[in-house]
Specification:
The structure is a single chain. The chain is of the alpha+beta class. Helices cover 54% and strands 13% of the residues. The protein is built from 4 helices and 4 strands, in the order H-H-E-E-H-E-E-H. The chain has a 4-stranded antiparallel β-sheet with strand order 1-2-4-3, with helices on one face. Strand 3 and strand 4 form a beta hairpin. The longest helix is centred in the first third of the chain and has 27 residues. It is elongated.
């Protein structure tokens, strides 16, 4: 039933109407990361992307972010130390990262 609903016209129309919003949020989030001094790994076509942070102690920074309710995936297990994977989130969540990051790397 789920697959039939997903393939139906109403679901596909809803998805198509959401894509421009999600693309805009992704561009805003990538720009925010650049402003924070992060290097974006090119090539992501999904609703997430990978970035290298300037944190000298990334595990400590990620733990501090969790204290602010922000969870980022450490990409060390992917062979990318110093990198995180970020899901594309709404502007309010992006602003939470903007506010928290300076305190988490200090």
């Amino acid at each position: 039933a789920l697959l039939q609903a997903w393939a139906g016209p109403a679901a596909q129309q809803w998805l198509a109407s959401c894509l421009p919003v999600l693309r805009g949020w992704k561009m805003q989030q990538i720009e925010l990361c650049r402003e924070l001094g992060w290097r974006i790994v090119p090539g992501s076509l999904a609703n997430y992307f990978v970035a290298h942070t300037p944190a000298t102690d990334l595990p400590a920074a990620l733990q501090a972010l969790r204290g602010h309710g922000i969870k980022l995936r450490d990409c060390s297990s992917f062979g990318l130390p110093g990198h995180v994977r970020l899901g594309v989130l709404a502007p309010a969540a992006q602003q939470a990262l903007r506010r928290a990051w300076p305190d988490c790397i200090a």
